Amino acid sequence: MDRRWILRVLGAATVALPIVDRQASAAFEKSPEKNHKLALHVDVNDPEVMKLALNNARNAHDLYTEWGEKVAIEIVAYSQGFHMLREDTSPVKEEIKALRAKVPQVEFGACNNTKKGMERREGKTITIIPEATLVPAGIVRLVELQELGYKYVKP
């Protein structure tokens, strides 16, 4: 094969790729309204991880809103992350209230399997914060959300 031909093809590609990339970017920016779906997962009893999940939700909402796009967000907590949504042990109750005040559509899924297990171990009824909803199983909820088109993120 003629080396000059290969060099010409590579040279043409070097010139054409940035043009194609700019055209694709322009088409993306001018696309009709988009709807995004974000599922966040908390499974550790770490206030910093919980705050990170809340900040991720707030930042995603703010940026998509700025772009004129919509986003549905659900934070699912199970295992030791369930403490995030417990009325008696949540280290981020006030942050959750503040986020919900700013972004009322953000959802919080609390794993009922984890709740039942904690109640057995602790010998008492556990109450979740008013912003949360019990889901049968946190892991199953994350699968359901992904099947509905949500993008999964673990902070």
User: Given this structure, which CATH class of the largest domain is correct?
Assistant: Alpha Beta
Kindly, what is the distance between the CA atoms of the first and last residues, rounded to a whole number of angstroms?
51 Å
- Would you tell me which CATH topology of the largest domain applies? Hypothetical Protein Ychn, Chain: A
Tertiary shape: globular
CATH superfamily of the largest domain: DsrEFH-like
Q: Could you please describe the fold and organization of this structure?
A:
The protein has 155 residues and is of the alpha/beta class. The protein has two domains: 1-31; 33-153, Hypothetical Protein Ychn, Chain: A. It contains five helices and five strands; from the N terminus they run αβαβαβαβαβ. A five-stranded parallel sheet has the order 4-3-2-1-5, with helices on both faces. 26% of the residues are buried.
Secondary-structure map:
Elements lengths: L2 H27 L5 E8 L4 H20 L3 E8 L15 H10 L4 E5 H11 L9 E4 L2 H10 L3 E3 L2
Parallel strand pairs: 1-2, 1-5, 2-3, 3-4
Key words describing this protein structure:
155 residues, alpha/beta, Hypothetical Protein Ychn, Chain: A, 2 domains, 5-stranded parallel β-sheet, globular
What's this, in brief?
This protein has 155 residues and is of the alpha/beta class. The chain has 2 domains: 1-31; 33-153, Hypothetical Protein Ychn, Chain: A.
